[in-house]
Inverse folding.
């Protein structure tokens, strides 16, 4: 029987507020390297209902282009029932976060994460103020 | 070698029709509790091409706001080639479901699902009539 | 202890260019069949920042309807900061790919992938020219 393990770690980070995107690729790679696991999956999950995770080419242009797309889809300048009830002004943040999603699963093979060259892992802050964020990094793999 | 297991269960539910959203968080937590597994991942998958799964703060406002976003992105009042061919009137449902996606992977650690406080797991019905839905809940973990 | 394994394979394919969608369901089923694993998950990940993966009813109408939705959300005829910097004309491709996402996780049970009848796995080419694409298919499961 091959050696098997599950490793659970958290990445904690502070966002600068709405539309901030934070590249966590090197953090994830470091946790994978330290685990010594050779083949398996990394599951990433951002806790909270106003942030998301995806992959993107992390360069200054797209850091503006992606939020502009979200503004077209769920503008902050329209009415949200969420805000009518709770008056916290982040109805659009919730809608955007549910659309992009909180979860990402990336395989690794021969200890290498299966990312493309221009493909980074990013946490997208969609809330209207700076937030502390906790991202679960869980690795299931074999040695 | 640590004890390891994979458990496969189905959640069966009936939607009330288009834009219904059903909170399955407590069902998932119950299946996880019963499994007695301590660390691992829960993979959720909704079978069918006109429903999706995501996380959201499950409150009455957002239950309206999220479908309104989908209506802006893939309105039911525009032309779909799908409907031109099949005449079943749910072209927009398919487009929306493929956008939001059928799959969600959530880690658990110390027997706790890694969800934020205001973050629930929801099945989103996008078809134009009430449907019976089957959601696979599969847990991979260690004791 | 039940027999456990992790299997990593690649699907390599060539897209015909922007908005091409390629059904990889039979490739994934063949890899799963060959693995002889009974219960577990298939993780699919498309390497690169201008392609995505999702499920859809793979029929000619929706193959046009889904890209039309992407054109409404991230039109190729508007300005992108990405293009202002890099002049490669695929800013919209990146935005669309990050929205739909690169990753999909599908459970299997009794050797059967948990897909609905009209639910196929597709790779969506969003770049503006034909591309060679590499999709990681990783299976974690028990015999």
């Amino acid at each position: 029987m091959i050696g098997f393990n599950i490793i659970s770690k958290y990445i904690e980070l502070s966002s600068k507020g709405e539309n901030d995107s934070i590249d966590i690729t090197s953090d994830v790679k470091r946790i994978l390297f330290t685990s010594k696991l050779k083949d398996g999956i990394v599951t990433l999950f951002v806790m909270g209902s106003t942030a998301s995770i995806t992959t993107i080419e992390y360069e200054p242009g797209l850091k503006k282009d992606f939020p502009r797309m979200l503004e077209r889809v769920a503008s902050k300048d329209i009415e949200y029932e969420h805000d009518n009830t709770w008056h916290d002004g982040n109805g659009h943040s919730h809608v955007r976060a549910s659309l992009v999603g909180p979860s990402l699963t990336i395989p690794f093979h021969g200890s290498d994460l299966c990312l493309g060259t221009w493909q980074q892992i990013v946490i997208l802050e969609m809330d209207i103020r700076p937030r502390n964020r906790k991202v679960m990094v869980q690795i299931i793999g074999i040695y």
About this structure: DSSP finds four helices and eight strands in chain C.
